[in-house]
Design goal:
- Its EC number is 1.14.19.2.
- This protein has helices at about 1-5, 5-15, 30-55, 60-75, 85-110, 115-135.
- The longest helix is centred in the C-terminal third of the chain and has 28 residues, at about 85-110.
- It is globular.
- It is mainly alpha-helical.
Length: about 140
């Protein structure tokens, strides 16, 4: 779940890449539009998982929120040096990893008798696959 909530960091990273930057926040370039659409979809993932955890009552949400705050405020340097090719290699692996992770969590949740979490994670995994395809 935490990886889905680091969205501001990811969008900031993508907006540093040469040829991809959305310097105005409303650029009509294809990459800028894609990045904003991707960000909107990824935002729903974090919201959904956070809401599920909150409603389940199984997690100390204060710790979760502190972890998210620390993660985002710490920033991230993936070593892409504003190079879009390196940025897309990184993003391709990241999208693949979240696809696999959410798919595995969906299967584990189903096996553990939690059909709601299984459906949530299965839906998120299905969203991640086209993201991976876009960056590869």
């Amino acid at each position: 779940m935490i990886t889905e909530d680091a969205l501001p960091t990811y969008q900031t990273m993508i907006n540093t890449l040469d040829g991809v930057r959305d310097e105005t926040g409303v650029s009509e370039s294809a990459w800028a539009k894609w990045t904003r659409a991707w960000t909107a979809e990824e935002n729903r993932h974090g919201d959904l998982l956070r809401t599920y955890l909150y409603l389940s009552g199984r997690v100390d949400m204060l710790i979760v929120e502190r972890t998210i705050q620390h993660l985002i405020s710490s920033g991230m340097d993936p070593g892409t040096e504003n190079n879009p090719y390196l940025g897309f290699v990184y993003t391709s692996f990241q999208e693949r990893a979240t696809f696999v992770s959410h798919g595995n969590t969906a299967r584990l949740a189903k096996d553990a008798g939690d059909p709601v979490l299984a459906r949530i994670c299965g839906t998120i995994a299905a969203d991640e696959k086209p993201h991976e395809n876009m960056y590869t």
